[in-house]
Specification:
- The protein has 368 residues and is α+β, with helices and mostly antiparallel strands.
- The protein contains eleven helices and nine strands.
- A hairpin with a 2-residue loop joins strand 6 and strand 7.
- Helix 2 packs antiparallel against helix 4.
């Protein structure tokens, strides 16, 4: 080991700088490809045979008194350089050598991108149509109270209209007042009530989401399905505004050749109420099996908001310390609601709504 120790011809500043520059370059050369940190530490900082100790002993023994201070300072700097190299090597150890080269001529791993579920895609298309008309989307809880789901929407307790929406009621609610009992919402209309209570007119919202009914499932009925409802409340809103809005929306969804027509109907929360039909998109209104040879397909329900609903909203606003804002003499509005599954079935030519929920990849891959 002593044979490899460099000789120090003189102790002047120039000779010391040259000698320690050589040692520093040696350290840098070894740390550039540092594979074994522990071997490097023992080689330079070992207590008995460490290179730094041996060089120090050899140079310091013969150094004059006035040269020991500059010599010691340079040794400390070299030691700091070695310790810094050790810390860097421990923090970022050298990567193991790659044993096998990568053949870049082979094809890469193909990763199939995900797609929107057809129901989600249809729902987003419907919402987008109304976004372009200035409507915003609103959401709310799927577990609702009887008040928001029925009573505030002009479904009084024991009213026959409740029978049209077979309801899934949560267990253990008998001790609560009727209006506070919890259930799975049967439509997204409760979000309309919540929005009006929280916000004064004007309001233009669409409400997409899941709804639940105790249905006997068949090709067109499900116990859980998707709805998109809409609400527009402002001054001087008329039935003509409702017809124009829905006619435009249907043309955006099904093409500019689609026609719409309205028939009187009944819903507790709208008066007057209507069912809207569109000309059959399969036979262009000529009559086929899918439209039962009528040339028309019933698609959604709609109507002008019943004044009783506005009264219920104002009553609840006052309970919450808000000012009344829905005077039927000044405010009017319309509402509508449609099932997403029915529209998706028409768009994609699907015969049964249940297949959308089957998670059959053979079916879903058709939409990729």
């Amino acid at each position: 080991m002593n044979e490899s120790i460099p000789q120090l011809p003189n102790y002047d500043e120039t000779s010391l700088d040259a000698a320690f520059d050589t040692l520093a370059a040696e350290v840098r050369g070894e740390t550039a490809a540092l594979a074994d940190v522990e071997a490097f530490r023992l080689r330079w900082l070992g207590r008995k045979q460490g290179r730094l100790k041996l060089i120090g002993d050899a140079w310091l023994k013969s150094a004059p008194v006035d040269a020991r201070r500059p010599l010691g300072m340079r040794f400390n700097q070299l030691k700091q350089q070695i310790e810094a190299a050790l810390e860097e090597g421990i923090a970022a150890p050298a990567r193991p050598a790659i044993k096998a080269a990568i053949d870049i001529t082979l094809p890469g791993t193909a990763r199939a991108p995900g797609i929107e579920h057809p129901l989600l895609k249809t729902m987003n298309e419907i919402v987008a149509v109304f976004h372009h008309l200035g409507y915003s989307a609103a959401v709310g809880p799927q577990v609702e109270s009887d008040f928001y789901n029925f009573e505030a929407l002009n479904f009084p307790p024991n009213h026959p209209a409740r029978d049209t929406q077979d309801t899934l009621v949560l267990a253990g609610q008998q001790a609560k007042p009727s209006r506070d009992r919890l259930l799975m919402r049967t439509h997204t209309s409760p979000v309309q009530i919540r929005t009006m209570i929280a916000q004064a007119p004007p309001i233009r919202i669409v409400v997409p989401g899941n709804v639940y009914r105790n249905e006997a499932e068949d090709a067109t009925h499900l116990a859980r399905f998707q709805q998109v409802e809409g609400l527009c409340v402002d001054t001087n809103i008329t039935f003509s505004d409702l017809k124009g809005t829905l006619d435009h929306a249907m043309k955006e969804l099904f093409g500019s050749s689609v026609k719409t027509r309205f028939f009187p109907s009944f819903f507790p929360f709208t008066e007057p109420s209507a069912d809207m039909q569109i000309s059959c998109i399969f036979c262009a209104g000529k009559g086929c099996r899918k439209c039962k040879h009528s040339g028309w397909i019933e698609l959604l329900g709609c109507g002008m908001v019943d004044p009783a609903v506005f009264a219920s909203v104002d009553e609840q606003r006052m309970v919450q310390g808000r000012e009344p804002a829905y005077d039927p003499a000044k405010i009017s509005g319309f509402a509508f609601g449609m099932g997403v599954e029915r529209i998706a079935m028409m768009q994609y030519g699907v015969a049964s709504a249940g297949i959308f929920y089957s998670n059959d990849m053979r079916f879903l891959e058709q939409f990729a």
